[in-house]
């Protein structure tokens, strides 16, 4: 954002100059009206507008996930998704202990960095946990247990500077274990996140959006990506650039709540067989 601010300061002078040229478009020369050529829009201005629009869209999509989760109780319907008005909690609303407490359902997502030769192996670098209403219960960067050979910032969003206040793996593991105890854990391919934390969780208390039959239909029975599910079922764009484990956790929770009844029925059938 600092680069955008500096761009605007440089652009302001250019915009004033452009405005003056527009006013003098019809200038008099030797008694004749001379038309000046139309000045094309400055390329830097176009680039800045494109970048700002992209940032606004990302912020809007991220806020929309939280807004829908927070505003609705119980099941979420397609009608609820049609309301694209973003209303985020603030002030006294955030004091609603019922909505800010961990509760029964928690969604988790992790980000990873590359370790080993060419960064081919993955190592935990961030864990985010949100509750039923999308409220952030836990969000910490984690110090990798091995030397990082590829930060994968373009996709993980993790950089070396995030390690300044990062917790140790042991701390993250212990905190996550306490949070997940006696909870329903929601996530997309959530076994990867649990494995990264070296944690186990009862199968009957896991709700994995990657395994729900209705979701798998759009990928012909294969495991669909969370990005694809969010786009298809929520009409919300995620993972447009660097991933956010908070947004991914919220997307998983929103998908679960949208099909909660059907997902619970599917899990009951599996347990009875």
TrEMBL record:
Residue ranges of the region described as Disordered: 1-40
One Gene Ontology CC term in the entry: nucleus
One Pfam family, short name: RNase_T
A GO term, aspect molecular function: nucleic acid binding
Gene Ontology BP terms: ribosomal large subunit assembly; rRNA processing
Keywords from the named record: Exonuclease, Hydrolase, Nuclease, Nucleus, rRNA processing
Compartments, as annotated in UniProt: Nucleus
Compositionally biased region (Basic residues): 16-39
Domain Exonuclease intervals: 104-265
Family recorded in the similarity comment: Belongs to the REXO4 family.
Function: Exoribonuclease involved in ribosome biosynthesis. Involved in the processing of ITS1, the internal transcribed spacer localized between the 18S and 5.8S rRNAs.
Name under which the protein is recorded: RNA exonuclease 4
Source organism of this protein record: Pichia sorbitophila (strain ATCC MYA-4447 / BCRC 22081 / CBS 7064 / NBRC 10061 / NRRL Y-12695)
């Amino acid at each position: 954002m600092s680069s955008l601010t500096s761009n605007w300061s440089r652009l302001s002078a250019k915009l004033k100059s452009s405005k003056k040229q527009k006013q003098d478009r019809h200038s008099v020369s030797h008694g004749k009206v001379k038309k000046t050529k139309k000045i094309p829009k400055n390329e830097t201005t176009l680039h800045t507008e494109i970048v700002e629009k992209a940032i606004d869209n990302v912020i809007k999509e991220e806020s929309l996930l939280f807004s829908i989760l927070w505003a609705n109780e119980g099941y979420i319907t397609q009608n609820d998704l049609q309301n694209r008005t973003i209303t985020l909690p603030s002030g006294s609303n955030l004091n609603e202990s019922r909505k800010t407490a961990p509760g029964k359902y928690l969604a988790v997502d992790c980000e990873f960095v590359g370790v080993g030769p060419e960064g081919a192996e993955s190592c935990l670098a961030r864990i985010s946990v949100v509750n039923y209403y999308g409220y952030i219960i836990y969000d910490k960067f984690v110090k990798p247990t091995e030397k990082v050979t590829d930060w994968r910032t373009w996709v993980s969003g993790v950089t070396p500077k995030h390690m300044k206040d990062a917790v140790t793996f042991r701390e993250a593991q212990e905190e996550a274990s306490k949070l997940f105890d006696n909870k329903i854990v929601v996530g997309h391919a959530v076994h990867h996140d649990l494995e990264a934390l070296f944690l186990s969780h009862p199968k009957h208390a896991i709700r994995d959006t990657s395994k729900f039959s209705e979701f798998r239909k759009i990928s012909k029975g294969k495991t669909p990506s969370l990005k694809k599910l969010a786009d298809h079922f929520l009409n919300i764009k995620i993972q447009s650039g660097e991933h956010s484990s908070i947004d991914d956790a919220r997307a998983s929770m929103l998908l679960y709540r949208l099909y909660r009844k059907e997902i619970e029925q599917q899990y009951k059938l599996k347990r009875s067989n």
